[in-house]
What does this fold into?
Amino acid sequence: MSYQFHIIINNRVKLFSVVSVGIVAIAVAVTLLFVSPAVPLAYASPLSEMSNQAKIQNNTGVIVLEGATVIDGTGGLPKPNTTIVINESRIACLSSSAESNHDLNFSASTNVINLTGKYIIPGLLDMHAHVANVRKNSYNQNESEYMLRMLLAHGVTTIRNPGGPTEQSVALRENVSEGKIVGPQIFTAGQLLNTPDIPVPFVERLVQTEQDVRQEVRTQALAGVDYIKLYVGLTPDLVKAAIDEAHFNGIKVIGHLYLTSWTDAADLGIDALTHGVPVSPFLLSKENQQKFLEAGDHPFNHFLWLDLVDLNGPEINEMIMALVNNDIPIDPTLNVYEAIIKEEPQNQYLWSKVLQLSKKLYDNGVTILSGTDIRILI
It folds into this structure.
């Protein structure tokens, strides 16, 4: 069963959902965004200044969630037997005190939902969701809307689309924001910036000069993107031009890179990097760089790169230091690598190396984001 309501974030009304889902061997969970680690909640007046009676004096449009255990995502202890009052466009009250709960007065018309034995958690974020699809000529409005509904129905209330057709990606974000279609809050990039040196089957703007790069960044800025996505064929000089132009226009930059190492990208000022296996010859030892090149270097040759990389070598250690010093987050999309490796029995030994690298990033202070790399056609 799914419930939906609105809440105000940064003075914008936004749709959220409560979804009942099973957690194997633990409990049944209810997913609800009431406090997001990513964005602050804005209220018309401080809750501390309002009496319980004042909060719910107008029961029209009031939804009351009773009896659930709240895990608020702050690291605090779970709050059992919590009552949450949702009054039209905002959360009016959250109380885990039995005495306070008794004082709340609800009219017969109030929609009261008993969630005893269930849990309420913050809405989930997917920081790598290609909801407009990223393959060339693959955009489908109906499929995009279906994906957005499914994300929200499963408790994902905010997503980052790290690349897709620019116009359609921005339109999806705006249509969700305006309530024209149902879905999680979207932050989006447009088409990828890439060079002709490494062709890919994705929506991309091919650039060759710094002037090309700056022009495309300006074009996407005018279109209204939240991010610029840099791709595998860009060299450090082109990456720098993109970062400088994007930041000048108030836009952040994310990258799936190859000819530019994560170390260089971090030092150049990129804002985030994607995928947990940073395939790049420049992160291998000199000897293994040569082996990689001789075997036919390629940005998607994950198995060869994993086999050759020394996770304790100076190249990886310098990379991690650059990520930490520049506060660059990574969404490792581990599910993608797990799926790829499962299809290659002879390479399954590399899965442990993927996990070791992710753990090393985390242990050294690199911010790890959740991201699935979902596409419309799955």
The longest strand covers residues 12-23. Confidence is low (pLDDT under 50) at residues 1-58.
